[in-house]
Amino acid sequence: CANTTVQREKDGDILRCGVPMQMVKKGLLAALAVWFLVIVLMPKTAFYYKVEAWLARQDIVLNETKINEGLFSLELEGVTVYVKGIPIANIQTLKFCTLFLYSSLTVEGLLLDDSLKAMAPQDVNEAYIRQFIGLPFNLFITADGSFGQAEGSVDISARKMHLDFNDSAHVQMLRPPVKKGEKGWYYETSF
Known about the structure:
By secondary structure, this protein is α+β, with helices and mostly antiparallel strands. The protein has helices spanning 21-41, 44-57; strands at 9-10, 13-16, 19-20, 60-63, 66-69, 73-83, 86-98, 102-112, 123-132, 135-145, 148-155, 160-165, 179-181, 184-190. Helix content is 18%, strand content 50%.
């Protein structure tokens, strides 16, 4: 096909290298329709229960008051997080949205238990976690809370997390785990 240019117009159908463009359009349209149907018909609640069972094996229990399944999303309301039977956090709303190529998790109204106040910020207004199919082992985080604003990433394959804090005035409460760098305060850890 490199040396020959086959173009022929017949009934609105242009041939390039022997493949009618209408067939290419129909194939792309069919793939798009299948992708849309898989996302819409995906059993999101059943997927959540599988994740919940996996977390239970790690001694982490999520207790929610309400589950709402949307067209592309799953929303949990009134979530209490227990670790080894001890309540450590309350979350107003937890929203999971997936389009296969892009997934996001939005956490609104996260309030940690008073016993964890020395180790982590107690109040997180909103945290937004994104994952792209091009970087399947990287999570990108944006958060806003009593500590100000933070942005960062988690590299699952390298088992590293890095957060940069934008507001240095509110970072004083996190002093022991955060470090001062050239661009401001940051938190880095391996897991």
